[in-house]
Amino acid sequence: MTLTDTQTLLLAHAARNEAGSLYPLPSTLSSAAGAARSIVALAKRGLAEERAVVDAGHTARTDGDIRYGVFATAAGLAAIGVSSGADEDLVGGGVAPPPPAPAPRATKTNTVLSLLQRDDGATLADIIAATGWLPHTTRAALTGLRHKGHQIERFKHDGVTTYRIAGAA
To answer: Is the domain of 10 the same as that of 72?
Structure first.
């Protein structure tokens, strides 16, 4: 389920406030009209719901003498990674830890970098075998890594030229 930045901001704001209310709107929103559209979209998807409120600070609209506020549902909180209690609809507490960083893409350049980060480094033949590149392409890739700021040192190991990362940008 994909949320817009505004929808995510509104649900995170609700998760931080004890009642789980989207109101009062966070000051970081650039437009109240955009927030209103996002709130309608959240309600249509079951991620927020309207309820009668007593606290004027949580009021989204009034109908006669009745005040209504918009509150995040358990599904709405789950959509942004906030766990809800077993018997509660809402959590006024903390946000779940951020998801782990995605693993680096398995590119040939990342393969070369991992070979060069080994303690004993990598020979040209090692890099060619791992990537399938021709020797001139492999040397060009090493030059490209240098241009990106990687300090690649060259040394002889058992009479064979070996490359290793000395430091990264």
So the answer is: yes
| 74 and 11 assigned to the same domain | yes
* pTM score, whole prediction: 0.48
> What is 52-64 written as a DSSP string?
EES-GGG-SEEET
Q: What is the pLDDT along the chain (169 residues), one digit of tens a residue?
A: 688 888 888 888 888 888 888 888 887 776 677 788 888 888 898 889 988 888 888 888 888 888 888 898 888 888 888 876 533 444 444 445 556 666 667 789 889 999 999 989 999 999 999 999 999 999 999 999 999 999 999 999 899 999 999 854 4
For residue 101, give the H/E element and its range: none
| Domain tally, the chain | 2
Q: What number of CA atoms fall less than 13 Å from residue 19's CA on the CB side?
A: 18
User: Which pair of tokens denotes residue 165?
Assistant: 């990362």
